[in-house]
Write a structure and sequence with these properties.
The structure holds 3 protein chains of 3 kinds. Chain A is an alpha+beta fold. In chain A, strands 4-5-10-6-7 form a 5-stranded antiparallel β-sheet. A 4-stranded antiparallel β-sheet of chain A has the order 11-12-13-14, sandwiched between helices. In chain A, β12 and β13 form a beta hairpin. In chain A, α10 packs antiparallel against α11 and α11 packs antiparallel against α12. The radius of gyration of chain A is 19 Å and the shape is globular. Chain B has 22 helices and 30 strands. By secondary structure, chain B is α+β, with helices and mostly antiparallel strands. The longest helix of chain B has 28 residues. Chain B starts with a helix and ends with a helix. Chain C is an alpha+beta fold. Chain C has 2 domains: 77 residues, Roll (Ubiquitin-like (UB roll)), CATH 3.10.20; 71 residues, DNA polymerase, domain 1 (Orthogonal Bundle). The chains are: A alpha+beta, B alpha+beta, C alpha+beta. The interface between B and C is large, with 60 and 56 residues. The complex binds flavin-adenine dinucleotide and FE2/S2 (inorganic) cluster (FES) (2 copies). One FE2/S2 (inorganic) cluster sits at the interface of chains C and B.
């Protein structure tokens, strides 16, 4: 393996373009290294380590948006005051990834590019209508295209990022004052747990009814899933027990879980329903 | 014999200056906390090679051919061996295993070939290049399949796939049935649990120019191991030396000879170079044995007043494709059935059945966790039928001191009653149970329990707080019975000691017993320090080299504190006698007027210091007598091997205890959270409180893993979850509040009255938790582990209206 | 075929000392510490980030050294268990582990101590839950964690207001 350590996005893109193939961008390595050592994925010929590109790190404000560099670690995001104020569920979700050792290395960009349906940062980003900035190598350096998070995932392990491209940033609008948002993940033990299922809800109220609703589910479909049917049940309604029931049923219908060594399909439906109900009940009382 | 082992604590000595019962940090802890301790994986020798094994990776197949040429051709490969290259001596409890397999594989972990190479990477690559042609045979995936008509025969010699059967009985079951007012029967299903020692298995083998073999090995039974290995690898036992480096966890996993060990020796033989073979975590999951999965059918009865009448047990244990010592666990299981409580009529039948699954071996508790889960679950079911408090039912039937159990075990001391009462009191048993029952009764107004709680609380609290109301709490208890003074399984259950004092009062104790992280080294040092009136820092224990240490049967059956403790105590007492005699001569006093304390000879009456121990020894050494103080001892416990009917007093004493668990069950998701465990153990006497607490806490949490989440999942002979990602160990968040109490029954046979406790704390945990889940949520789950998914399925089944 | 020949020179500061080593590009930090530098206090327990036995501090943050490539550490500071002891004196965390009975087989201990070190560096007065969170990635099969948690809590600096 040949190891490269670019300092700028342009340099990274150009290195990816010119190095011996296959080339792999490397961020925290917490997805890549276990796969290499377990032999489920061959080591690439070249690695381009993105961690030393200043521009890819940290949280900032940009034109009223919150902007996170792709190489920002879960620990940094969790502790970041801007994130805690503007998107508390993102802070919570990344704070529940694995353990300190992993959170210190794992990047949010890696979490998205790895495209596991269980990626913990994905659901909060779906609720936030986040956008992903993807950089492509051009003669002049780099061009950036912006992809809505909902369109980002293409299947387990697959995204819209083409070979040669990298994700540079994520951006989203801060959650407005008074909005409710919550996220929870279910595992069979409290820590070190890849989600059996996860659920996030964001609702804004106007005139006593819900004016904006976002629901998202993790680990219950080939990609982190937006809960459009559940959202439809909420929109324009007050959070009554009947609405919560209907929303729960819609969720059971629209998720497409599988049975694997961690849980059965039916059980995933049950825990999604239970988590969703609890979150909505909390929303109703807040 | 008992007198010989008990010690007369000098009358004058006050509580505070005895070391017994104190909190003594482990002697090897600084070495480990600094990272200086060298485990097997940390040891390297000049010119050392790395061994790697090719496993069959198919459950049942005939080996047609093996082509090792590509592997042999690799640069850096020093040896490639298959069954054709070695002595094929059968070994293992069923004599059905060989180091490498010659013509047939019977489980995925069967060892087929092995490589020694210059680096681990080359060895791994070479193994991949070995081509084996197999002819697959039908897979026997379960004991049911194995005993079905026309099932494939797994080992030629055993046509019915049932290599071992165990029968035990006392009394007359039919009479017991006739005597019963109430009878309960049920079937309990137990899973495979992996030891998950944090340090993976490994060995280093090297031969010297004389053909002497030195093994750095993790075995917990070095002396038996040496003899067995000698036969397997064809080296005379006196030419084998076993050195045991610190070990990253044992829990029973190192009781057998595992094929990787002779394989490594064969590689060293072939290459005439030291060879190291250490498993990866995945290999550890796939190629080391587990706790045996079992199906236990149990039927038992009681009279109206709660006295037990009979217990009838039939068990099937999945032996897997080969037999290890794990096949003998029914031998311990029957003892809980027969002797934890008084039962006049008991019968047990166990079948050990070959399948093409991975195989099982000894694991902390040795079958007893499985047995106790069935037994203590069923006692709660009986109590339920009787309309009695489970505590009362247990108290009525609990064994008492002085009794001889139905199986002939003599309970010279027995603190079971105190254990039951103490744990119950600590847990607030009555109140908590009543509260749980009251809320359950409210729920049972409609059959839909889970839903009702939700609805009811929704009305009460508005929907706001209902999420916390779908949590219900309850308490449950379980006790255990286990050997506490060794177990006479082998011809000798003894342990030897050599003890010597240097000129300055420093003691070296050579003991045959091994330290596997359980803290025995510290306890033994403490016993010697106490016996000789020397500070702990003066005592050095050597326990890991068969060339130096005298014989011991091994670390198992919770025996080390008891057996090795007695042996070092007797050696220390003999040294003490010699010291006092020398001191008396020098100080012109009678030996019984003197005592030893804090490195000094003191006046027995006043405690006044008279002379340093070092001076006395030097006087003896360099004075006219020219003597050294060195003593030896071999302690054989006063137990008897069981007779053909399994009757007999197999241990010098027996340990008892009770755990009460308090749980919270989430009715929506099935999650069981253990909030508190109150554990009371009859330990005879507390020697090292710190070490003892550590053993018990560790055992409880291991037991919680067994109960809640741990399971090696096997399908069609293949392991589905060979990693920590999907084999769920408890983490820091899972630790409940633990309230520990000790009942000190001062067993006359124990060193300072102590009994062995190593295995006990794991044994009753699962049953206590399952009983608590029943108390909380009204569902009786007879199958471990209690995963959220399984618990929720039971909750749903219970809430479906009865037909 | 393992690329034994493709070795890269890596410079880093380990336990305060500058070191330069040659390692294969595929080597992890764990490999280099254990095999290259003979710092065997850092343990291999799983090689996939699940057990924490290989925990070290990398530029001040606790990481699983099995999930870091050695080449990534060029120019970095690494602190291992061997770097805690000074002048033959146990570090207070090491001492607490010894005194509180937090060590049994000891295999998890170096990793536990490094995780505890990182926790106490960033939060000198952790609550019990914060301790549990700080160690959630470190498995121990022997102790049941209780004594480990107690050892670390004994070091928590308690201000007057949080008594
Ligand atoms: C023990 C353990 C526990 C875990 N627990 C969780 C958990 O609870 N929740 C969870 O969500 N995840 C979990 N993970 C998975 C993993 O930690 C996360 O997915 C992490 O965020 C990945 O980020 P990374 O920076 O380490 O990615 P890397 O491993 O560096 O990269 C992952 C993939 O993304 C690509 N990539 C990385 N950055 C970019 C970029 N900027 N542009 C383009 N491609 C890029 C890489 O080429 C690679 O294909 C766990 C992993 C382990 C080992
Ligand atoms: S060895 Fe690195 S986490 Fe287990
Ligand atoms: S002390 Fe053995 S794993 Fe923790």
């Amino acid at each position: 393996m040949i190891y490269h350590r670019p300092k700028t996005i342009e340099e990274a893109l150009s290195l990816i373009g010119r190095s011996a193939w296959p080339v792999s961008p490397l961020a925290g390595g917490t997805d890549l290294l276990p796969r290499w050592s377990a032999g489920v994925q061959d080591r690439p010929a070249s690695i381009v380590d993105l961690k030393h590109i200043e521009d890819l790190k940290g949280v900032s404000r940009a034109n009223g948006d919150i902007r996170i560099g792709a190489c920002t670690s879960m620990s940094e995001i969790e502790a970041d005051p801007l994130i805690r104020a503007a998107a508390p569920i993102l802070a919570e979700a990344v704070g529940r990834v694995a353990c300190p050792q992993i959170r210190n290395r794992a990047s949010i960009g890696g979490n998205l590019c790895n495209a596991s349906p269980a990626a913990d940062s994905a659901i909060p980003l779906l609720l936030l209508d986040a956008e992903v900035e993807v950089a492509t190598h051009t003669d002049s350096g780099a061009t950036i295209r912006t992809v809505p998070i909902e369109e980002f995932f293409k299947g387990p392990g697959a995204t819209v990022v083409a070979p040669g491209e990298i994700v540079t940033h994520l951006r989203f609008k801060p959650v407005p004052q008074g909005a409710f948002s919550a996220w929870d993940k279910f595992g069979t033990r409290p820590a070190m747990e890849i989600a059996v299922a996860s659920v996030g809800v964001a609702v804004e109220l106007g005139g006593g009814v819900i004016s904006r609703a976002r629901v998202g589910y993790g680990s219950v479909a080939p990609v982190p899933l937006r809960g459009k049917a559940a959202e439809a049940e909420l929109l324009g309604m007050a959070l009554s027990p009947e609405v919560i029931n209907r929303c729960e049923n819609a969720a059971r219908e629209e998720i497409k879980p599988i049975t694997d060594v961690r849980a059965s399909q039916a059980y995933r439906r049950d825990v999604v329903a239970a988590m969703l109900r609890r979150i909505l009940q909390r929303a109703a009382s807040s | 014999m008992f007198e010989a082992a008990s010690v007369a604590t000098p009358k004058r000595r006050t509580k505070k200056d005895t070391l017994i019962g104190r909190r003594i940090p482990k002697l090897d802890a600084p070495e480990k906390a600094t990272g200086l301790a060298r485990y097997i994986e940390d040891l390297n020798f000049p010119r050392m090679l790395y061994g790697k094994i090719l496993f069959a990776d198919r459950p049942h197949a005939r080996i047609v051919s093996i082509d090792t040429s590509a592997a042999r051709a690799m640069r850096g490969v020093r040896a490639v061996i298959t069954a054709a290259d070695i002595n094929l001596v059968p070994f293992g409890y069923g004599q059905d295993n060989t180091a490498l397999k010659a013509d047939k594989v019977t489980c995925i972990r069967d060892e087929v070939a092995a490589v020694a190479a210059d680096t681990p990477e080359i060895a791994a690559e070479a193994v991949k290049r070995i081509r084996v042609t197999y002819e697959d045979l039908p897979v026997v995936a379960s004991p049911e399949e194995a005993v079905a008509d026309g099932a494939p025969i797994i080992h030629e010699k055993i046509a019915d796939n049932t290599p071992f059967r165990y029968d035990y009985s006392h009394g007359d079951i039919e009479a017991g049935v006739g005597d019963s007012h109430i009878i309960v029967e049920d079937t309990y299903t137990l899973q495979r649990q992996a030891h998950c020692c944090l340090g993976t298995s490994g060995i280093i083998a090297s031969f010297d120019a004389d053909g002497r073999l030195t093994l750095h090995s993790l075995t917990q039974v070095p002396f038996l191991y040496k003899n067995d290995l000698a036969r397997i690898v064809g080296v005379a036992p006196e030419k084998i030396r076993i050195i045991q480096p610190p070990i990253g966890g044992g829990f029973g996993s190192k009781l057998d000879i595992h094929p990787f060990e002779p394989i490594c020796i064969f590689l060293a033989m072939k290459t005439s170079r030291p060879v190291k073979l250490v498993f990866t975590r995945e290999e550890e999951f796939l190629a080391t044995p587990t706790r045996q999965n079992a199906v236990i059918y149990m039927r038992s009865g009681a009279r109206k007043d709660g006295t037990f009448t009979f217990r009838d047990v039939r068990m099937t244990l999945d032996n897997g494709g080969r037999t290890s010592w794990g096949a003998t666990t029914p031998w311990i299981m029957m003892r809980s059935f027969s002797s934890l409580y008084r039962v006049p009529h008991v019968r047990q039948h166990a079948d050990i059945i070959y399948t093409n699954n991975i195989y099982a071996c000894a694991f902390r508790g040795y079958g007893n966790p499985q047995a106790t889960f069935a037994l203590e679950s069923q006692i709660d079911q009986l109590a339920d039928e009787l309309g009695m408090d489970p505590l009362d039912v247990r108290l009525i039937n609990a064994q008492k001191p002085g009794e001889t159990t139905g199986q002939g075990m003599v309970l010279r001391t027995c603190g079971l009653k105190e254990c039951l009462e103490t744990s119950a009191a600590n847990a607030g048993w009555e109140t908590k149970r009543r509260e749980a029952e009251a809320s359950r009764n409210q729920q049972t107004e409609t059959p839909n329990r889970a839903a009702t709680v939700r609805e009811r609380t929704k009305e009460q609290a508005g929907i706001a707080c209902s999420h916390c109301r779908s949590m219900v709490r309850g308490v449950g208890m379980a006790s255990f019975f286990h050997v506490g003074g060794g177990a006479k399984i082998y011809r000798s259950d003894g342990c030897g000691t050599i003890l010597k004092l240097d000129d300055f009062g420093a003691v070296t104790v050579l003991t045959g017993s091994s330290e596997i992280g359980q803290g025995s080294e510290t306890v033994l040092a403490q016993i010697v320090a106490e016996g000789l009136g020397l500070p702990m820092k003066n005592i050095r224990v050597i326990n890991n080299d068969t060339e130096l240490t005298p014989w011991d049967v091994g670390v198992h059956a919770s025996r080390t504190t008891f057996i090795a403790g007695n042996s070092v105590l007797r050696a220390a007492r003999e040294a003490r006698r010699k010291l006092l005699a020398a001191a008396a001569a020098r100080l012109k006093r009678e030996p019984d007027q003197l005592d030893l304390s804090e490195g000094k000879v003191v006046d027995g009456a006043t405690g006044e210091a008279l002379e340093s121990i070092g001076k006395i020894i030097r006087g003896l050494h360099f004075g006219s007598k020219n003597e050294l103080i060195m003593t030896t001892d071999f302690y054989e416990p006063p137990s008897t091997a069981p007779d053909e009917d399994q009757m007999g007093d197999i241990s010098a004493c027996y340990a008892f205890g009770t755990h009460v668990a308090e749980v919270e069950v989430d009715l929506d998701t099935g999650v069981v959270k253990v909030i508190k465990v109150c554990a009371t153990h009859d330990v005879g006497r507390v020697i090292n409180r710190l070490g003892l607490e550590g053993q018990i806490e560790g055992g409880i949490v291991q037991g919680l893993g067994y109960c809640l989440s741990e399971e090696v999942k096997v399908s069609e002979g293949r392991v589905l979850n060979p990693s920590f990602t999907d084999y769920k160990l408890m983490t820091t968040w899972d630790v409940p509040e633990m309230e520990l109490s000790f009942v000190e029954t001062n067993d006359p046979a124990g060193p300072y009255g102590a009994k062995g406790v190593g295995e006990s704390p794991l044994i009753p945990v699962a049953a206590a938790v399952a009983n608590a889940v029943y108390n909380a949520a009204g569902v009786r789950i007879r199958e471990l582990p209690l995963t959220p998914e399984k618990v929720l399925a039971h909750l749903k089944a219970a809430s479906r209206p009865a037909e | 075929m393992p690329q034994v020949l493709d070795r890269i020179q890596i410079g880093m500061v380990v336990n305060g000392e500058s070191v330069t080593i040659m390692a294969p590009s595929t080597a992890t930090l764990l490999d280099v510490l254990r095999n290259g530098l003979e710092l065997t206090g850092t343990k291999y327990g799983c090689g996939e980030g699940e057990c924490g036995a290989c925990s070290v501090l990398l530029d001040g943050r606790v990481v699983n050294s099995c999930l870091v490539l050695a080449v990534e550490c060029e120019g970095s500071k690494v602190l291992t268990i061997e770097g805690l002891e000074s002048n033959g004196q146990l570090h207070p965390i090491q001492k607490a582990f010894v005194d509180y009975g937090a060590v049994q087989c000891g295999f998890c201990t170096p990793g536990m101590i490094m995780a505890a070190y990182a926790l106490l560096e960033s939060n000198p007065a952790p609550t019990e839950d914060e301790v549990k969170r700080g160690l959630e990635g470190n498995l121990c099969r022997c102790t049941g964690y209780q004594k480990i948690i107690e050892a670390i809590l004994s070091l928590a600096v308690r201000g007057a207001d949080d008594v």
